[in-house]
């Protein structure tokens, strides 16, 4: 997977227990909590740093935890958190249904609109037919660099950069930088939604699938790849489950949705017909792309398996079909 999404992830992610205490978080969210930039941890509980945002953020978390306790559908709740002289931080709450083996209450996603997620240069080249130099310039334009700044970064003349910019505009059908920013922004949205989007970019889908299929990765990286900025008909459903020793899901396939399985306790063996199985341990996650036949197995003879999975699809459905 390209390094740029990891450097500038779409979301910072935190998982809370039913009392609002932070149970898990990725590195970016942890850095924010340490800095107290709009959000912080007070006595282990997630809170807004600014008094002006505190009530709204507390309502967001409280309502999301109530939804989780009532096993309500995972409908996102959204609150903007004001930051003096800067664009507001966007906080999104998603409930997690509880399970007897563990206590989780909510996923909180934090989105900084001032952080721009740069698309992979290889994707720009594949989609628009850009050369390596043209793709690099397109990424710099998307990041709001001026021609002078781009020339300095590339150690080239302004005229050379102007020539590259002209070629980028010609190949993408854009006439100015603002149009290119909108186009690449839309490309990022499609990339986030992944291969399940009807009419989506097949190159983006191949990149996501090749990087993630059948590979156990750190759960933070996997969750950062979730298509949570998908179009209105795409929704997230979060379900927690427990498996006794030896239990399995049976072979099945998701025809139109993405699935991320996060292991909380025990170890998950993911099996694919004709391919090597993959072990995913506690604290890790595995991504399953649409159309991939698989089954999850608790191969332990004595330990229970606890996990939760996030499904992204039309109306929250990932269209399971048993085989």
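^ Assign residues to that structure.
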């Amino acid at each position: 997977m390209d390094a740029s999404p990891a450097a500038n992830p779409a979301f910072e992610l935190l998982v809370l227990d039913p009392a609002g205490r932070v149970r898990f978080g990725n590195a970016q969210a942890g850095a924010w909590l340490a800095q107290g930039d709009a959000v912080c941890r007070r006595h282990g509980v997630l809170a807004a740093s600014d008094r002006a945002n505190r009530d709204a953020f507390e309502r967001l978390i409280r309502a999301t935890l109530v939804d989780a306790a009532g096993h309500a559908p995972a409908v996102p709740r959204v609150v903007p958190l004001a930051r003096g002289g800067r664009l507001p931080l966007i906080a999104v709450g998603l409930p997690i249904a509880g399970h007897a083996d563990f206590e989780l209450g909510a996923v909180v996603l934090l989105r900084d609109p001032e952080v721009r997620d740069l698309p992979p240069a290889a994707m720009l080249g594949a989609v628009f037919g850009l050369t390596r130099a043209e793709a690099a310039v397109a990424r710099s334009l998307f990041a709001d660099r001026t021609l002078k700044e781009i020339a300095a970064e590339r150690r080239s003349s302004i005229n050379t950069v102007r020539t590259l910019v002209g070629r980028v505009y010609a190949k993408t059908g854009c006439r100015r930088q603002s149009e290119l920013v909108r186009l690449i922004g839309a490309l990022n949205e499609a990339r986030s939604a992944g291969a399940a989007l009807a009419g989506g970019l097949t190159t983006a889908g191949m990149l996501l699938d090749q990087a993630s299929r059948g590979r156990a990765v750190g759960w933070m990286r996997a969750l950062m790849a979730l298509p949570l900025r998908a179009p209105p008909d795409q929704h997230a459903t979060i379900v927690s489950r427990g498996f006794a020793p030896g239990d399995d899901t049976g072979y099945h396939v998701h025809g139109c949705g993405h699935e991320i399985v996060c292991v909380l306790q025990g170890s998950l063996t993911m099996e694919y017909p004709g391919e090597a199985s993959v072990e995913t341990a506690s604290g890790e996650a595995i991504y399953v792309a649409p159309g991939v036949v698989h089954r999850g197995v608790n191969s332990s003879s004595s330990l229970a398996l606890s996990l939760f999975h996030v499904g992204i699809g039309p109306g929250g459905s990932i269209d399971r079909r048993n085989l």
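The chain has ten helices and 17 strands.
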